[in-house]
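Limitations
The structure tokens in this dataset are predictions for the assembled complex, not deposited experimental models. Users should treat interface geometry with appropriate caution, especially where small molecules or nucleic acid strands are included. An illustrative entry is reproduced here so readers can see what is and is not provided.
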Amino acid sequence: MDISIVVPLYNEEESLPHLAQWIDQVMQQNGYIYEVIMVDDGSKDNSWKIVEQLHRQNPCYKGIKFRRNYGKSAALNEGFAATKGDVVITMDADLQDSPEEIPEMRRMILEDGYDMVSGWKKKRYDSKLTKNLPSKLFNATTRMMSGIKLHDFNCGLKAYRKDVVKSIEVYGEMHRYIPVIAKWAGFSKIGEKVVQHRKREYGVTKFGMNRFVNGYLDLMSIMFISRFGKQPMHFFGLIGTLASLFGFVALLVVVILRLTGQIALTRSIWFYLSMFSAVLGVMLFLAGFLGELICRNSTTRNSYLIETRIED
Ligand code: UDP
Ligand code: MG
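Predicted assembly:
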């Protein structure tokens, strides 16, 4: 199997037939052996009927249907698990991404040795205020925090080497950070290709402004988990120690002040600082210990990535 195309979709009934036609055309022109995995993320319209119909017409089309709307990340994750192709493509169902980009993205993976190629919607056809501006901010922040030099982290059109999609887990709203997840899983060759983008013709966008409320929290989680996820004590223990040390110094000051009989204790800021730091220090250590206990019980505590192995 040359290519698996994963398409997450939520209420996209009008777009699907056009999308399928377009994909088939590109695949046949290039003579690929391919599959298209349509993941219906709990659509309330006729999307699933159309997926069934597509499968009847062409068995290359496969479908996964969620019981309710779980989100794009969950859809991608289940799609990834089902893929069989050497190269995996993800694209949106709304005809905003063009399948004509696929052959070049595939070539970059197979010949240029990229683990992952992310689309870059250099000229974007979305509403300026709600998408383009916040997007610039999002991309700049993610670029800075992750050190990955991409212009457009959240482009729906991406290509992956098979290993990548089989090694990462996408959940919650984390689809925006797949390049970051891939990098931390050890896939560091991440490329970019400028892709054509189009206006949404049918249906409406599924992501409003609310995505920015949680977006930066997700980035914090990813950065934290990738750095300290396996040893939370290294994070909490360090700041816990600093807090405790500071508390100890503050306590010394309090004792000295008391012994020299200068002021009433409760009127000294050092008194409050020492109490506050002691409580903070204990809490941080507690968080560290709890984190360690959770890691110890986690089945993925040793999930490092074996790239190849030679046996016997
Ligand atoms: N999508 C999904 N589940 C959701 C929201 C969106 O599967 O809960 C799909 C949607 O059908 C589309 C893709 O994710 O194929 C991108 O969504 P959309 O076009 O609404 O995002 P935008 O292009 O406006 O950022
Ligand atoms: Mg779209």
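Some entries come with short summary sentences. For this one: The pocket of uridine-5'-diphosphate (ligand 1) is lined by residues 8-10, 12, 41, 69, 71-72, 75, 92-94, 96, 156, 205-207 (CB under 6 Å).
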